[in-house]
Amino acid sequence: MVVKSQIKLIKSLHLKKNRQLHEQFIIEGVKGVEQALSNGLFPHLLCATTPNLLAEAYTEFRVHMVSATELSQMSALKNPSGFLGVFQIPKPQPVDYSDWVLALDGVQDPGNLGTIIRLCDWFGVRHILCAMGTVDAYNPKVVQATMGSIGRVQLHYVDLAATLASAPVEVLGTFMDGQPISNAKFNTPGIVVMGNEGQGISEEIAALVSRKISIPAHHTATTESLNVANAAGIAMYEIRRSSL
Question: What distance in Å separates the CA atoms of residue 82 and residue 70, rounded to the nearest whole number?
Answer without folding.
Answer: 10
